[in-house]
């Protein structure tokens, strides 16, 4: 085992974005050599890895060729060529999470069916191969308004998801394989990150809660620990553990869930990698999610998942009406607030709602952290230089 | 101020070792561009900075030329060409800590005289230009055994320091400018890191304690908070603040002190940079020392210096009798212990007592952390591959 450290072992990472960059801090801490593949010549990982290769993550030959050169392969993004991963695995290369896990997750229809097959609580659903079949089901009264529409592939960050309340809402939907899900009212959107190693060691992080803007229906704060009953938190961690067990994944699995009005926990979807809902762990946890991912895929003992202090994460997104060279207005003011750490993703240009970074607020008292987080949101503005 | 972030500002760092490497994680977090100068082509910073230059840190032209290319200059090592820094400053370049601070610290004779001039408590001393003058003072009975001998320049990590108990002990000492210091019995060796910004904002970290091996007279554990009376801790932070105030330094100042048997605090020496006694802050503090250094030199608000949890740091040094390609025996065992994080410095070869990394142990209960730290020390062995 110990031969990962200061040796010739090379970890390959597919995707060179922000998640990869944060993962690379941890490989540096352990002195683990890294190689990164990303389509962009300006990928954030470029200057933090040992070797960088520019190439298409969906191209079989590129991914296969890259994989051949490394000792173990992981990814920081789901949209990679699964067939190449399969071939690498068949030749004995370690790929964590496995192509099998990834394939089940890449297609939301398959993912939902997987939950059903494994008796994991999730909203009732039906898969449709195209828009026409979806429309037919409505006409035949097999499917009723309202429902949640999801594109089976390609969606992320809320893209590829729509609430369909009437026939009007169907018109703008693209003609793709999709699923229609029962719209279940919920009290809270929760998430639990589970880490699992090849030896089967499993640890869950405390439950986080997404607090939404009262009008804009956008997540404003990711709060850890979630302000929910102990019994509900326990149930959420149990459900997340069951999902992890069903997938038998290796690495991290971020499980997004709803707490219904009846305090049931139902699974929404999962991501097999470090996740936005775990960014707070850098400042709040004994083991941050990136270190935990590295520990898990290298089959090292998992770190303690408890929190040292309460943590809140706020996304830094481009302000409306601002496009161009970015300025973080008042960043020095938020840095003067207690327990506030900005993380800047280094994108040169801002545009409305573009994710430009995040800010973590930590405090022993989560309600105090919540107040400071509100101050942070009010104070910092991601604007363009020309419109200052 | 905000223009450090995602802009064309470049921070120059003299020295590309481990301290620089840990500093670079923080510049990445803030997306600050960096350039590093180091004599070694294999410097740890090489793959973590934006641009790397190989060159002699003591050479005027090299340091001056490097400084001209960056917007602000700092260092992670004291042995750099001060004249070059002076010239850069005279031309308007920001250098933090300043050449003035560095010059006072580089020579221990000047440093001690500075404490005397500023009424900072320190052991009585005399400076000698060479070994002959030191011997004369002993012959004339102006200097009495025992005393502490220190080389005025070039000493670090305990090198260049000797306890002289009799004439025999003088023989091996080199013929250099030196000082003789009164040997004062002490209860504890303590340290406080002070951060100070150009605007004069000052914050002190909690007091740390060095626990020595009962026989080997080597620091075994750096413990935060120090297990001392609240009144003594308060005094130590006050003294450290006074030292900081006297230097009017910018950046970090690590102040090493003794707690005498009479509970007096006397200053031993200082380092104007991130320091071994602050490594635990990565895991234990609201703001780690490297982030704090960056905040300070960029005149950003200083971060909170309190601890989230208790922290203990153990150095990872090469085992006796082992030279060659390094193996971290049982590293996976210490990683299974609660709250344990190894930091591996990436040196390929081990040799007896070489600093190869450090391990941090954090826990809410410092006495529990201390027990785990003892387990860590007992368990991990930095050995060579051939002698396994």
Automatic annotation (TrEMBL), chains A, B:
State a GO cellular component annotated for this protein. cytosol
The alphabetized list of GO BP terms reads:
'de novo' IMP biosynthetic process
Outline the extent of the ATP-grasp domain: 112-298
User: EC number(s)?
Assistant: 6.3.4.18
Q: Which gene encodes it?
A: purK
NCBIfam families (UniProt xref): PRK06019.1-5, purK
Q: Which UniProt keywords apply?
A: ATP-binding, Decarboxylase, Ligase, Lyase, Nucleotide-binding, Purine biosynthesis
Pathway in which the depicted protein is active? Purine metabolism; IMP biosynthesis via de novo pathway; 5-amino-1-(5-phospho-D-ribosyl)imidazole-4-carboxylate from 5-amino-1-(5-phospho-D-ribosyl)imidazole (N5-CAIR route): step 1/2
Protein's name in the database: N5-carboxyaminoimidazole ribonucleotide synthase
Keyword Lyase appears in the UniProt entry? yes
Instruction: Give the first-level EC class, as a single word.
Output: ligase
* Species this protein is from: Ulvibacter antarcticus
Subunit architecture: Homodimer.
**Could you tell me which Pfam families the record lists for this protein?**
ATP-grasp, PurK_C, RS_preATP-grasp-like
Give a GO molecular function annotation for the protein.
Answer: 5-(carboxyamino)imidazole ribonucleotide synthase activity
The record's family statement is: Belongs to the PurK/PurT family.
Residues binding ATP are 108, 150, 181-184, 189, 268-269
Provide the function of this protein. Catalyzes the ATP-dependent conversion of 5-aminoimidazole ribonucleotide (AIR) and HCO(3)- to N5-carboxyaminoimidazole ribonucleotide (N5-CAIR). Catalyzes the ATP-dependent conversion of 5-aminoimidazole ribonucleotide (AIR) and HCO(3)(-) to N5-carboxyaminoimidazole ribonucleotide (N5-CAIR).
Q: Does the keyword Ligase apply?
A: yes
Q: Which reaction does it catalyse?
A: 5-amino-1-(5-phospho-beta-D-ribosyl)imidazole + hydrogencarbonate + ATP = 5-carboxyamino-1-(5-phospho-D-ribosyl)imidazole + ADP + phosphate + 2 H(+)
